[in-house]
Please model this.
Amino acid sequence: MNPLHQGAPYRAAALLLRGDSESFWLPEAKSTVAGQVDTLFYWILGISVFFFLLIVGLVVFFLVKYRRRGEEIAVQPSAHHSTALELAWSGIPLVIVLAIFVGGFKGFLNLRTAPDDAYEVQVTAQRWNWSFTYPNGHVDPELHVPAGVPIRLVMSSLDVIHSFYVPDYRVKQDLVPGRYTTAWFEAKEPGESRIYCAEYCGTSHSEMLSRVVVHAPAEFERWLQEAADWMVGLSPADAGAELYRRKGCVQCHSVDGSAGIGPTLKSSFGSPRKFTDGSDGRVDENYIRQSLLQPAAAVVVGFDPVMPTFQGRLDDEEIAALIAYIKSLN
Ligand SMILES: [Cu+2]
Model:
């Protein structure tokens, strides 16, 4: 927990001055590259504060020193030129900005280039959720990784631009529809970190919250195996309830009767429907299957055709589970 929230005001001052992992300025540095990013940040911050104080200090000093004292004083001619001064005020900033450039460029290259032995996870963003696909085919709404192993994320979006952001790791990368972008990180220790979407140009990007769960290396494989088998032993309706959450249906469909971006799923099974092409029908198994695979084929009157297709993202067993769940809501 951020010590700031513990309520002791004097700690805020202590944090302000602290330069280690968790500070007033930055969250705890939980990835191997975070320290490098933070060092550069503190350098730039320090340089900015130094020049701010220097300039504002001189302004105040000269204001006082040369204030008007009543009697007129003759204006003295100022020096036209001072080679030493001009070289100094060009040279010193040049060295400073070049040092910032070198530090920034090295950090950038490091953040761009995943180690060759990195473990790969596919990241898919869509309005308004994340899904993470592991090498064994398991898809999870949370990113699980082993500690101490470099992780390469291969990311794409199904609709608009999203931005994968884990402040604890100092990693941020846009996801663009129709192409792949990559990012990598190595978590130092087991624990949890928040994932945000930092693309604040649409209604609910800020609600695309997920988390990274970092496992001890020995436990990760076991987690992955168990996670991949999560439907085993669940009734279809229970599995469907879980899929409803995991696949992001919850973003658009309520189960309590209130209309959202899409119709509520409560008591929908068996009820009649009117479609925008003038035809009508009834909610049954085939209609639900079609809604999932070709949502644009029949659009319910009163709603926009914004449901994404789940073609290739739900197998038959999962579709059956969702149908069982929707039936159970009657
Ligand atoms: Cu987003």
Observations:
- Confidence is low (pLDDT under 50) at residues 1-5.
- Residues 125, 162, 197, 199, 205, 208 surround copper (II) ion (CB under 6 Å).
